[in-house]
Design goal:
With about 170 residues, the chain is an all-alpha fold. It is built from 9 helices and no strands.
């Protein structure tokens, strides 16, 4: 892969990579650091990237794995459930009803994701946060195309039910 191809194919994925890192780490500075480190490592291996069939999923999965490694080093061996917990509050917002509702929705989403097994949670996270296609998720997770579609359908349905309940409160 040439320098120009790398810039055209990898750098536009920065926002997806940052979103995945921020969801896992919940810290802007750490998320930026992780994305920069992953891009640097991909740059070093840019010749081998020519064989990659889905560069988008490779970028997001690399960020995810780096974040998990970072958390494990910081806190010892932490379970994947705790690492991918999305239950964080919105920092820097005024205490209005909107903020309370937003935090309530985030907690509800976190609760739903915590009830899912690792594969379900990963597939839903890659789809909703990483904005990967079904084919990219299939390559990243090793699941079949049909299984990915089924997991996404069930996960979205479950999220919809929980969010509708939260909005009615």
């Amino acid at each position: 892969m040439t320098d120009g191809e790398f810039k055209q194919l990898v750098l536009p994925r920065y926002s997806d990579m940052y979103a995945a890192a921020f969801v896992i780490l919940r810290d802007k500075n750490d998320a930026c650091d992780v994305v920069q480190e992953v891009i640097a490592r991909l740059w070093e291996r840019r010749k081998a990237l020519e064989a990659a069939t889905s560069l988008g999923s490779l970028c997001v999965v690399s960020v995810r794995n780096f974040c998990i490694d970072m958390l494990r080093k910081r806190h010892g061996r932490v379970s994947l459930d705790a690492e991918l917990n999305l239950g964080y509050d919105v920092a820097g917002k005024s205490s209005t009803d909107d903020t309370a509702n937003y935090n309530s929705l985030l907690k509800a989403i976190s609760k739903v994701l915590s009830t899912m097994n690792g594969v379900q949670r990963n597939v839903l996270t890659l789809s909703l946060i990483g904005r990967l296609t079904i084919d990219e998720i299939q390559q990243a997770t090793g699941e079949t195309n049909v299984n990915v579609r089924q997991i996404l359908s069930r996960g979205r349905r479950k999220l919809k039910e929980v969010l509708e309940d939260e909005l009615q409160r």
